[in-house]
Write a structure and sequence with these properties.
Elements: H1 8-20, H2 22-27, H3 30-33, H4 36-40, E1 45-54, E2 60-71, E3 77-83, H5 89-105, E4 111-117, H6 126-140, E5 149-152, H7 159-173, H8 194-212, E6 221-224, H9 229-240, E7 244-249, E8 253-256, H10 263-272, H11 280-283, E9 288-291, E10 303-305, H12 315-323, E11 328-330, H13 339-347, E12 351-353, H14 355-358, H15 361-375, H16 381-405, H17 412-431
Helix pairs in contact: 1-5, 1-17, 5-17, 6-7, 8-9, 8-15, 8-16, 9-10, 12-13, 15-16, 16-17
Bound molecules: NADPH dihydro-nicotinamide-adenine-dinucleotide phosphate.
Length: 434
């Protein structure tokens, strides 16, 4: 904490992982002797830069850009870019740190990185978004490459933003380096099923977890927070599997629809018109809209999928979910539950799928996009979806096995952290002190 003051989110992410690793260090002191912990919490590189841009009135604005290249022991840095006013060094470092272990868990050769800006895309015109993305890439571009660092989307960065950044990068390099970004449009190197991957992957992961306890999505009542990329496709897959998703949210409030959320309306509002969720009730007057996003956790449900942002479930919300008999919680977002909330779930027998494992489907399919770009081929939706499904089953299996082997059966927080850590730590040992 002395070394990284005022970085509470980063401290939280590190604490969760280090607590999980206690049994590893007890069993295998070699990692301690090699200084793996001290090395793994220090990013290999952290880049901060100025992003100047002009709005449609010609007024100059300056935002701050970040890229943390955290760990390249098992592959090129890989992780999304977030555009949101809350972005700062602590947020980027917590996300980058988690990404190391998540990427390792996918079984693919990708290291950990993350980036973004405190730019707020809300209410900006298309032309403003384009100018911002071009300015952002004109600096980031010199630090990335298909074999060094491969960014993707995250909050506030979707296909439109990736397209503008890819165009700027191509112009800077004077070469068509398709694999430098993932989440690209389908016409220029994007992968089918990448848009769906994180949300679908979260549901596939939870499916495995539920199956082990004789439970299923079919017939369950589900609450999904957020209404962005991860949420929309978690809602879609859960609904396809026969669940009824009764609520979703954005940063202003949440919608409760006892008939089940109409996903076409959410997609139109969020993906096409870029509007607020409050307008959902205009199309569905029988639904209810409430101001304030955390109220969503007061709705009784069997399965809760937090898919919006970090620390959206605190201890109080977790207790409310438990009181209302929630059976399983799957983290589609990154670190959506506070450490206290996780304790509430684990101590009350709630099945808990931690983010690193449950939302790894997005980056896994990003790595499949890189593979397709390298081979200059394109797989069908069904092929990518089947690979995603198999990857999520494997992540579940390796997390369960690690939890058992290290004395915490059923605790997937511990299991996922350990399984993700071991591969990276071993690679770091083999590669020496670099
Ligand atoms: P989007 O920008 O597409 O959607 C984010 C959603 O969360 C929006 O509904 C947004 O509402 C809401 N939200 C954002 N910030 C807040 C906040 N402070 N309080 C309440 N609601 C908020 O992002 P994604 O769906 O891509 O990302 C969601 C989460 O999933 C993030 O934690 C991200 O890191 C994680 N994730 C994403 C992956 C991906 O492939 N996209 C991969 C793995 C993890 P509003 O529109 O009002 O801002």
């Amino acid at each position: 904490k002395d070394r990284n003051p005022n970085e509470s989110e980063f401290h939280q992410a590190v604490k969760e992982i280090f607590l999980s690793l206690i049994p590893v260090f007890a069993k295998q002191p070699k990692y301690m002797e090699a200084g793996i912990l001290e090395r793994i919490v220090e990013p290999e590189r952290m880049i901060t830069f100025r992003v100047p841009w002009t709005d449609d009135q010609g007024k100059v604005h300056v935002n701050r850009g970040f890229r943390v290249q955290f760990n390249s022991a098992i592959g090129p840095y890989k992780g999304g870019l977030r555009f949101h006013p809350s972005v700062n060094a602590s947020i980027i470092k917590f996300l980058g740190f988690e990404q190391i272990f998540k990427n390792s868990l996918t079984g693919q050769p990708i290291g950990g990185g993350k980036g973004g800006s405190d730019f707020d895309p809300k209410g900006k015109s298309d032309a403003e978004i384009m100018r911002f993305c071009q300015s952002f890439m004109s600096e980031l571009g010199r630090h990335i490459g298909q074999d060094t660092d491969v960014p993707a989307g995250d909050i506030g960065v979707g296909g439109r933003e990736i397209g503008y950044m890819f165009g700027q990068y191509k112009k800077m390099r004077g070469a068509y380096e398709a694999g430098v970004l993932t989440g690209k449009g389908l016409g220029f190197g994007g992968s089918l099923a990448r848009t769906e991957a994180t949300g679908y992957g979260t549901v596939y992961f939870m499916q495995e977890m539920l199956k082990d306890k004789g439970l299923q999505f079919h017939g369950s009542t589900v609450v999904v927070s957020g209404s962005g990329n991860v949420s929309i496709y978690a809602i879609e897959k859960a609904t396809q599997l026969g669940a009824k998703v009764v609520a979703c949210s954005d940063s202003n409030g949440y919608v409760y629809d006892k008939n089940g959320i109409n996903l076409d309306t959410v997609k139109r509002l969020k993906e096409v018109e870029r509007k607020r969720l409050s307008e959902y009730v205009d199309a569905h007057p029988e639904a209810e809209y409430y101001e304030g996003s955390t109220g969503i956790w007061s709705i009784p449900c069997d399965i809760a999928l937090p898919c919006a942002t970090q620390n959206e479930i605190d201890e109080e919300s977790a207790k409310l979910l438990v009181k209302n008999n929630v059976k399983a919680v799957g983290e589609g977002a990154n670190m959506p539950s506070t450490l206290e909330a996780i304790d509430v779930f684990l101590n009350n027998g709630v099945l808990f799928g931690p983010a690193k494992a449950a939302n790894a489907g997005g980056v896994a399919v990003s790595a499949l996009e890189m593979a397709q770009n390298s081979a200059r081929i394109a797989w069908s939706f069904e092929e990518v979806d089947a690979k995603l499904h198999a990857i999520m089953e494997n992540i579940y299996k390796s997390s369960v096995e690690a939890a058992e082997e290290y004395g915490h059966p059923g605790n997937l927080v511990v299991g996922a952290n350990i399984a993700g850590f071991l591969k990276v730590a071993d690679a770091m040992m083999f590669q020496g002190l670099v």
